[in-house]
Design goal:
The protein is an all-beta fold. The chain has two domains: about 110 residues, Immunoglobulins (Immunoglobulin-like, Sandwich); about 80 residues, Immunoglobulins (Immunoglobulin-like, Sandwich), CATH 2.60.40. Helix content is about 0%, strand content about 60%. It holds the Pfam family ig.
């Protein structure tokens, strides 16, 4: 008989709760369930659950996580408030009678919603419109302009907190043509495009 564990990867917003679930797909229950974080050298034990001892959380994870679905066939761990350190893959180990250890892996990805600014500035005989988006993973910035042939330049900056800023500047050589017209900055993040509109006034 093929025994397996069903898991699902999750993507959650920074500083919100997140849950990872494992389900043992054969009819029998495990004797003990262990959750581990995958590390470069060897996995780190986080928490175990068994009928005899209940939930035992390792000191490093005391205030961070708990088992929120107490089962020996279905097990869920919940992080109360995810940080970037929590991003990674986690193993659930079902220690069974007769089959030994059966494991599954679920991965957690942390995202940050884009913060966007859009503004413009006249200088001498040209106009610069700047659109900046900061998010995790890195956003993409596009322009929708009334006519083609307008140049733009983009700068990408990675921040220590795990976010990335993408700043695009639209260089308009004949600003008079642009006055009263709408420019749209489009920000693409995790498959969603959001429009930010700016009308240029002289």
């Amino acid at each position: 008989t093929k025994v397996q564990v069903v898991t699902q990867d999750e993507r959650e917003q920074l500083y919100t709760p997140a849950s990872l679930k494992c389900s043992l797909q054969n009819a029998q229950e495990a004797l003990i369930v262990t959750w581990q974080k995958k590390k470069a050298v060897s996995p780190e034990n986080m928490v175990t659950f068994s009928e005899n001892h209940g939930v035992v959380i390792q000191p490093a994870y005391k205030d961070k996580i708990n088992i929120t679905q107490l089962g020996l066939q279905n097990s869920t761990i919940t992080f109360w408030n995810i940080t970037l350190e929590d991003e990674g893959c986690y193993m659930c180990l079902f220690n069974t009678f007769g089959f030994g250890k059966i494991s599954g892996t679920a991965c957690l990805t942390v995202y940050v919603q884009p913060i966007v600014s859009l503004h413009y500035k006249f200088s001498e005989d040209h106009l610069n419109i700047t659109c900046s988006a900061t998010a995790r993973p890195a956003p993409m910035v596009f322009w929708k302009v009334p006519r083609s042939g307008i140049e733009n330049s983009t700068v990408t900056l990675s921040h220590p907190n795990g976010t990335t800023s993408v700043t695009s500047i639209l260089h308009i050589k004949d600003p008079k043509n642009q006055v009263g017209k709408e420019v749209i900055c489009q920000v693409l993040h995790l498959g969603t495009v959001t429009d930010f509109k700016q009308t240029v006034n002289k």
